Amino acid sequence: MKLEKSRLISEAAPQPSASQKVNFTAHEGDMSVINFEGVKVRIVNINGAPWFVAKDICEALELTNSRMAIKALDEDEKGVTLTYTLGGKQKVGAVSESGFYKVLARSRKATTPGTLAHRFSNWVFREVIPSIRKTGAYGVPFAFLNDHTKRKALYIAKASKRGHALQSCKTEKARLTAEEAELWRKYQPELPEMSHDQNN
Questions:
Q1: What is the mean pLDDT of residues 98-107?
Q2: Considering only CA atoms, which of 98, 82, 80, 79 is closest in space to residue 90?
């Protein structure tokens, strides 16, 4: 995700007026993902300003009711976006940068040392924000993750087919080995039992 560096440094990103309903469509190129201790937070670039997927930030802050956390924000700090997800297009709640900071600041767990929320808030303020201010970006572009996920799914499907084929071969081999042992027992019972290794 590339953000306009000057906007983030010199002024707050423009927000819609409080009376406006915030709805926007994000494309794959407008998204990036940050990952903290296995929790992924999607960030949508809307007119050069970062908007955070509400469900993701609430998960990172260990908030169980994202609707309540977002409800307390001003109308111009929350919205709905039609966004690309790994499962396709979905409507998701999004929070502006100022809304994100408010949710972070209001989280009790974010001030409790040792919690995921506390570590997440420290990481955001110590690494993510300075990186955005310095370079204009942070996180992996969603298009790259989406491409990787598709390739990984294809690999898993191929591996699964190969795995089934391998398992089928192993089953067939075991059946043939047992059949051979039975033939030897039936037709030449005087021969000593052959170990599995000798049958190969």
A1: 89
A2: 82
